[in-house]
């Protein structure tokens, strides 16, 4: 290099100019004709996005969708001849949840009742769910799944289950994902 001192001087001047240009001049002692506005800071309202999906919308993450569908399928697969109530299926899905959430799944001491459950038990039928992603649900970091079911006997008799169950799942932030929380509603 022929002129190392010139290069060093140019870099120093450029750096100093750049820093000075990025630093606002003090205006504390100058009168201002416009009102001052305090800067606002945004408080994050959503969890950080997953590592594999930058925008953090759980509905765009295939792994979270698949986990939600798997959980909803397990939670709506019942065998009334073996399951004391519907919560037995939720107990089977605890392996897909965080430890904290799994501890919250507690089966009630009362048995399931109702015509649908009792008929299925009498005919020794098992529920066969169909689960679908609710695409009209747009809450960030939540996957909504709707489950409907058919009751099927070993000899092939089947009939539609009554109603549908909708689940709303949230997940841990990193893979392998676990269900952090969920709620469900039977319609």
TrEMBL record:
Keywords: Signal. The keyword Signal applies. Residues 24-44 are annotated as: Disordered. Residues 1-22 form the signal peptide. PROSITE patterns: PROKAR_LIPOPROTEIN (PS51257). Residues 31-44 have a biased composition (Low complexity). This is Lipoprotein.
